[in-house]
């Protein structure tokens, strides 16, 4: 499940029947560049809000969470394509993480993608009490982070004795 798919830019198969693509909008934008134009189609399987998903608990084995990462009030090509952070966006991302883990099955995987062009990934990871397993920096300036989380079973021996972080 892709919780906020946008134009499905990370997907090799943008129509993969194994994936439920969700976004809060359905739109088409034409971006103009010096070398031509590109049409970006945002066409999810369903319209939904990643901070309040309409799924029962533990519905998916894998969730992809690539939320907007730019705080901007105006519209630009990048915010038309990927959306922007508005209002109390830290609370929105906190709720998004909580929802992603809620709908994730035990022993499921959450793939989180973040570009720290405005906000460092270390600050964003403070918005969840789950700890990532590993990650990778990519992009020309190494500003995009791919981070993998694993949701353990509560009865896993390594988890049984751990204290949960309370907010």
Question: In brief, what are we looking at here?
Answer:
With 167 residues, the protein is an alpha/beta fold.
Task: Note down, in words, how this protein is organized.
The protein is α/β, with parallel strands linked by helices and 167 residues long. It has one domain: 3-Layer(aba) Sandwich (Rossmann fold). It contains four helices and eight strands. The strands form three sheets. A four-stranded mixed sheet has the order 5-6-8-7, covered by helices on one side. The chain has a two-stranded parallel sheet with strand order 1-4. It has a two-stranded antiparallel sheet with strand order 2-3. A hairpin with a 2-residue loop joins strand 2 (27-33) and strand 3 (36-42). The longest helix is centred in the middle third of the chain and has 15 residues, at 89-103. It is globular. The chain starts with 21 loop residues before the first strand and ends in a 7-residue tail after the last helix. The mean pLDDT is 89.
Could you tell me the mean pLDDT? 89
Please give the radius of gyration in angstroms: 17 Å
Q: Tally of extended strands?
A: 8
Name of the CATH homologous superfamily: Vaccinia Virus protein VP39
CATH topology: Rossmann fold
Give the second-level CATH assignment, the architecture. Answer: 3-Layer(aba) Sandwich
Strand content: 25-35%
Category from helices, strands and their pairing: alpha/beta
N-to-C SSE series? Answer: EEEEEHHEHEEH
Anisotropy-based shape: globular
Uncertain spans, ≥5 residues at pLDDT below 50?
none
**Terminal CA distance:** 27 Å
With strands numbered from the N-terminus, the spatial order across the biggest sheet is 5-6-8-7
Number of helices: 4
Helix proportion of residues, in percent? Answer: 10-25%
How can the largest sheet be summarized?
4 strands, mixed
Q: Identify the CATH class.
A: Alpha Beta
Number of domains: 1
């Amino acid at each position: 499940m892709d919780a906020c798919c946008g134009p499905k830019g990370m997907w090799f198969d943008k129509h993969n029947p194994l994936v439920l693509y969700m976004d809060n909008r359905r739109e088409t934008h034409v971006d103009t560049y010096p070398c031509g134009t590109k049409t970006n189609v945002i066409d999810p399987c369903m319209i939904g809000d990643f901070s309040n998903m309409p799924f029962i608990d533990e519905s998916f084995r894998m969730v992809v969470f690539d939320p907007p990462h730019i705080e901007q009030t105006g519209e630009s090509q990048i915010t038309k394509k990927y959306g922007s952070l508005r209002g109390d966006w830290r609370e929105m991302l906190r709720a998004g993480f909580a929802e992603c883990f809620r709908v994730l099955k035990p022993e499921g995987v959450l793939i989180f993608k973040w570009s720290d062009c405005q906000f460092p990934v270390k600050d964003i990871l403070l918005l969840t009490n789950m700890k990532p397993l590993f990650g990778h920096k990519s992009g020309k300036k190494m500003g995009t982070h791919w981070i993998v989380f694993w949701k353990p079973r509560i009865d896993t021996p390594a988890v049984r004795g751990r204290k949960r972080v309370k907010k």
